[in-house]
């Protein structure tokens, strides 16, 4: 991709802005400088900072197709944007089989579309209100269209007025979904999963079969889910079943499990964000830090009390992301609670301070996911835009106008 020179009139002067593809050999330092200046929090308030570990494209690197653009004024990096493209479920349709088959006469099958995702839009505070952010979005959308994407979407906090106005008022995006980001601290003590639940770790091929059979019609389900499950950042897929139904020693494989499942079960996978980037809370007073430290000391000294201690968020910390949460049966919530306890202990053993997930606000299993309200976001905002006139399948029509379903599949590669 060649750079594109854009001229903006600022008072009596003309500022030339160049938009081009990110070059890691010369742009990393400038990009990191913009990231730092954009993350300066308000005085006297807590702020969350991100350390990308010297890899500005780490949050899209694992996607099938990705691009990062930078904006320059002279030799100075003043903005950047990242994007990736994948194929996901946008709806479902009824598929009818012929007579010579052992499958049911008809079943729901997914309808796929090519979807682009925008993240990490940053513009230096000294160069805002010049249209640089708008031009970065436009240039990235051109690349999306050139690569066959039918839709583009982005996620932001619903109270980020500047971001929402840019995308909805200027770029033609519509407010689409409002999932919840649920965050739970990792305590100094281990959690005790229910004694009448067994947790089994699945091989990637078993996990893929289970996901494709039970979750492929879930909105945003990635068609390349096998790439996600086999990625080195996926620490495992875990299945919870009633004790006595199956065990790691008697596990028959997903095919036989699906033919004769227990009355209730739960499923989730764990993604290791710690090896991609770390977070840090800044702006806390000495009193708050002292209180947090005291809770940790008490929790370590008396683990049997199971105190809800506050991790050390004031130093760089890593976290695990739980994805692909689901289950069936009257005790599915209990199965998910057991899996969340198991995931908490896995994060504790890995040195993480937080376990996070993102689910639809209407997700039936949402109430089974432990989280602290003060750390969580009850309503994240996803905005979407239709990029082309044609559709991959007329059964869905315009996805941007579709009503929300009960569940969504949040791809960990984009969190």
From TrEMBL:
<keyword id="KW-0012">Acyltransferase</keyword>
<dbReference type="InterPro" id="IPR052810">
    <property type="entry name" value="Plant_NAT"/>
</dbReference>
<dbReference type="InterPro" id="IPR016181">
    <property type="entry name" value="Acyl_CoA_acyltransferase"/>
</dbReference>
<dbReference type="InterPro" id="IPR000182">
    <property type="entry name" value="GNAT_dom"/>
</dbReference>
<comment type="similarity">
    <text>Belongs to the acetyltransferase family.</text>
</comment>
<feature type="domain" description="N-acetyltransferase">
    <location>
        <begin position="17"/>
        <end position="192"/>
    </location>
</feature>
<dbReference type="GO" id="GO:0016747">
    <property type="term" value="F:acyltransferase activity, transferring groups other than amino-acyl groups"/>
</dbReference>
<protein>
    <recommendedName>
        <fullName>N-acetyltransferase domain-containing protein</fullName>
    </recommendedName>
</protein>
<keyword id="KW-0808">Transferase</keyword>
<dbReference type="Pfam" id="PF00583">
    <property type="entry name" value="Acetyltransf_1"/>
</dbReference>
């Amino acid at each position: 991709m060649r750079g594109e020179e854009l001229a903006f009139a600022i008072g009596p002067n003309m500022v030339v802005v160049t938009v081009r593809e990110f070059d890691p050999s010369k742009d990393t330092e400038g990009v990191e400088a913009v990231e730092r200046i954009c993350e300066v929090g308000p005085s006297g308030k807590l702020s969350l900072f991100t350390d990308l570990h010297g890899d500005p494209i780490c949050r899209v690197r694992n996607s099938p197709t990705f691009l990062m653009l930078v904006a320059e004024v002279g030799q100075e990096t003043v903005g950047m944007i990242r994007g990736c493209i994948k194929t996901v479920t946008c709806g479902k349709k009824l598929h009818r089989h012929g007579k010579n088959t052992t499958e049911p006469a008809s079943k729901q099958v997914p309808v796929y579309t090519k979807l682009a995702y925008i993240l990490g839009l940053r513009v230096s505070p000294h160069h805002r209100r010049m249209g640089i952010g708008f031009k970065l979005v436009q240039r990235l959308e051109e690349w999306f269209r050139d690569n066959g994407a039918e839709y583009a979407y982005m996620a932001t906090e619903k109270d980020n007025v500047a971001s929402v106005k840019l995308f909805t008022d200027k770029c033609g995006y519509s407010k689409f979904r409002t999932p919840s980001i649920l965050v739970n601290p990792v305590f100094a003590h281990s959690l005790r999963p229910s004694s009448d639940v067994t947790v089994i770790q699945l091989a990637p091929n078993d996990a893929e079969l289970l996901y494709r059979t039970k979750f492929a019609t879930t909105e945003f389900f990635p068609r390349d889910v096998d790439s996600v499950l086999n990625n080195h950042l996926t620490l495992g897929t875990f299945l919870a079943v009633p004790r006595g139904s199956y065990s790691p020693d008697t596990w028959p494989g997903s095919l036989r499990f699906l033919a004769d499942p227990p009355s209730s079960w739960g499923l989730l996978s764990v993604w290791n964000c710690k090896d991609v980037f770390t977070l840090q809370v800044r702006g806390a007073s000495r009193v708050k830090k002292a209180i947090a430290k005291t809770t940790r000391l008490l929790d370590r000294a008396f683990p049997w009390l199971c105190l809800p201690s506050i991790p050390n968020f004031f130093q760089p910390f890593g976290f695990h992301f739980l994805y692909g949460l689901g289950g069936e049966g009257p005790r599915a919530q209990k199965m998910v609670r057991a899996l969340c306890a198991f995931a908490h202990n896995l994060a504790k053993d890995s040195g993480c301070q937080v376990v996070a997930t993102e689910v639809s606000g209407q997700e039936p299993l949402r109430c089974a996911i432990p989280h602290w309200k003060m750390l969580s976001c009850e309503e994240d905002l996803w905005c979407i835009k239709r990029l082309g006139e044609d559709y991959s399948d007329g059964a869905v029509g315009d996805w941007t106008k579709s009503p929300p379903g009960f569940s969504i599949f949040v791809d960990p590669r984009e969190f």
